[in-house]
Amino acid sequence: MAQAAGPCLTCVLVSVLVLAAVAVSFVYLGIDLRSLFAGESLRSMGRFIAEFFPPDLSGPFVAKAAWGALQTLAVSALGTLIAVAAGGVLALPAAGRFGAAARQLARFALNALRSVPELVWAALMVLAAGLGPFAGTLALALHTTGVLGRLFAETLENVPREPEQALRHAGSGAVAAFGYGTLPLIFRQWVAYALYRWEMNIRMAAVLGFVGAGGLGQMLYYHLSIFQQAQASTALLAMLVLVFAVDTLSSRLRRKLAPAYA
User: Fold this and answer.
1) Which stretches of the chain drop beneath a pLDDT of 50?
2) Residues 42, 124: one domain?
3) Counted domains in the chain
4) Mind spelling out the 3-state secondary structure of the chain?
5) b/e burial code for range 132-156 (CB count within 10 A of at least 16 → b)
6) Which of 1, 81, 159, 167 is a plausible cystine mate for 177, CB 3.0–4.6 Å?
7) pLDDT of the residue at 141
8) pTM for this one?
């Protein structure tokens, strides 16, 4: 009879190290879960949450929240669209289509763009373009270009080159060969990536409002800062409805366009 396999020493060692790291992190950060669930803490949180109800559902303020939601939607959509175009352009050299030097330069640019958080880009764009949705659009476009450009480049690297090469050997130009030989193979996956990033940018567009980039986030920050919790609650509800609607639409589109990546 075959002997039962003994315990995986590497697995045990890794588990012990992870548990030790978690314990050390709690001690180092001074996390006290008892104070979080203490009676006074729970009562304070309960009083704060209760101030958000009922939300302000008056006609003028609901219309204002709807306008803010539309502004947030526009910022996220336009920022993502710009990033799709810029990321697609940078993905070509990043995938090695124009030589090793162009590949390294394009990858450096993509790494630099996505290594800077959206909030930092937004702060810079507010200084450059002023307060408002334009700064938020630019901030989302810059960061998302780095993310999508990297994803698009990896897709290009993994797609077979034979269809494009066959067209080139048959006398087709470089652009036509790419458009008919490679683009149909990557189009659905690129669209799936773009839709997924749009979902994320909806949430981030709302957060960018806290640094003056317009939309629901700016409304939420303003009303919280003057302790108008009822109005802030309405802004939160509008944000929830917007995120749910866009997530549902995007998920359905991704399942239809690229079922394997939905």
Assistant:
1) 1-2, 260-262
2) no
3) 2
4) CCCCCCCCHHHHHHHHHHHHHHHHHHHHHCCCHHHHCCHHHHHHHHHHHHCCCCCCCCHHHHHHHHHHHHHHHHHHHHHHHHHHHHHHHHHHHHCCCCCHHHHHHHHHHHHHHHHCCHHHHHHHHHHHHCCCHHHHHHHHHHHHHHHHHHHHHHHHHHCCCHHHHHHHHCCCCHHHHHHHHHHHHHHHHHHHHHHHHHHHHHHHHHHHHHHCCCHHHHHHHHHHHCCCHHHHHHHHHHHHHHHHHHHHHHHHHHHHHCHHHC
5) bbbbbbbbbbbbbbbbbbbbbbebb
6) 167
7) 93
8) 0.77
Q: Do 161 and 140 share a domain, yes or no?
A: yes
- Domain limits for position 219: 57-261
Same domain membership, residue 102 and residue 31:
no
Asked if the structure places residue 4 within a domain, the reply is: no
Per-residue pLDDT tens over the stretch 184-220: 888 888 888 898 898 888 888 878 877 776 778 888 8
Whether the CB-CB separation of 76 and 198 falls below 8 Å is answered with yes
Examine the domain organization and report whether 115 and 237 are in the same domain.
Answer: yes
CATH number reported for the structural domain that contains residue 196 in this entry? 1.10.3720.10
